[in-house]
Amino acid sequence: MKYVLRHATILTMDESMTVIENGALAFDGDTLVYVGKDAELPSSLLATCDEVVDLADALILPTFINAHTHMGMIAFRSLGDDSPDRLRRFLLPLENACMNEELAVASSRLAIAEMLLAGIGSAVDMYYFEDAVAKVAKEMGFRLWAGETLMEDPHCDARNGREGLKKAVRLIEQYCDDPLITPIIAPHAPYSNSLSVLKEAQALAHEYGLLWTMHLSEMDFEMEKYAKEYGLSPIGFLEKEHLLDSSLLAAHCIHTSDEDIALLAKNGTKVIHCPGANLKSAKGIARCPRMRQEGVLVGLGTDGPASGNTLEVFTQMKLYAILHKNVLKDRTAIPASSVVPLCTSEAAKVLHAEKNIGSLVVGKKADILVLELESPNMIPCFDPYSVIVYSSGVQNVQHVFVNGRWLVRDHELRDVSLTWLREEFFRVAQPFFEEAKKRS
Predict the structure, then answer these.
(1) CA gap 239, 241 in Å, rounded
(2) pTM score > 0.70 for this model?
């Protein structure tokens, strides 16, 4: 299909942060073929397109990227949120007792629907049964970096880390060169895997030219463990073992010294900042402005629905700007225009995907988000970046295209019924709910 979108304000998110007023955008199949002034739109594109969409009161930008989540954990949302022993009382026991492929799939369908309706076209997922989850993402037209969680202790999908690595290899073989699914290697954390499994995970990522990811410098007990046993921070430990590299996505990195940040920068390690989940769990605030100042690339993530509850990045952008301004005691320190890249262009660089997504440039993939400007919360629009970061929300997501496929049209999913997704989830999750009640 060939579409032409006209008369909108386009935030290209290119290297020059070009903004095109009264702009037009055209794409043929999965590829952008025109981005520029509407007045300069070639008549041949209009003559040969399948549909013209007038967006005179809208913003067009790349779809958002959620760089860290756990889609299969929808079933845990709102369960024991204010419990001090939530991990041991609810999460781990219920995961081991009730999580299976069917529930992970039903949860992931709902998660993808939630993200699409929130303008997210791509996500990095770390959970279990990822081969089945990747299949669902592909069916729904969603762009996914899929990582099978590796843990040393027995869990719902594997008996140990090496068994998880075998599943990761099968995922790689299944989705090699897929246009939407990119496998990723995903050890849970340094403290939950043996050193040998961490090194095998890194080697596997390097062998296939893939990214790998783990939670890092997130937990108080993690910091205490590495200080006591090695006299190092977790980041320092990974540096000592040659495990910091440019293919690693380090999720959270809440507890970082200047030395840690220097190590991340030296090795080209990327950081995924999840401010909503971190604050909700009272873990602290990662020093991401300092990281970016030192050259560390940063992406925004929601974390899982059990941790941050919501899977939309509007909240993450707003929290990033507001919280870090307060920490720095400087309202000018975090311009809104520096925040939007964290879930578009800079996030694409984090994923080594900037040649294809993250900005609206001819030749790149047609991953397009349209935000309407007609709702009261969007009026007036002096600065589109400020409107996105401080004013907008999921209710303003009008259209979403991923890889050229129109997935959200006029605020509604086109290809799947939300009613069916909800009913299917509740059917599959019933045993989980019954077990959760016993623990409440």
Answers:
(1) 5
(2) yes
Residue 380: cis peptide before it, omega within 30 degrees of 0: yes
Instruction: Report whether 124 contacts 351 (CB < 8 A).
Output: yes
Q: What would the pLDDT profile of 260-319 be if each residue is shown by its tens digit?
A: 999 999 999 999 999 999 999 999 999 999 999 999 999 999 999 999 999 999 999 999
Three-class SS state of 430: helix
**Mean predicted confidence (pLDDT) in 6-34:** 98
Rounded (5°) CA angle 281-285-291: 145
Beta bridge partners of 299: 272
- Which residues span the domain enclosing 325? 64-350
Distance CA 9, CA 107 (A): 35
User: Do 133 and 44 fall within a single domain?
Assistant: no
Alpha-carbon dihedral 339, 10, 137, 246, rounded to 10 degrees = -40
CATH number at residue 39: 2.30.40.10
Contact 142, 402 (CB under 8 A): yes
pLDDT at residue 86 in the model: 78
**Is 374 among the domain residues?**
yes
The Cα–Cα gap between 90 and 270 comes to: 31
Q: Is 378 helix (H, G, I), strand (E, B) or coil?
A: helix
Shared domain for 191 and 100, answered yes or no, is: yes
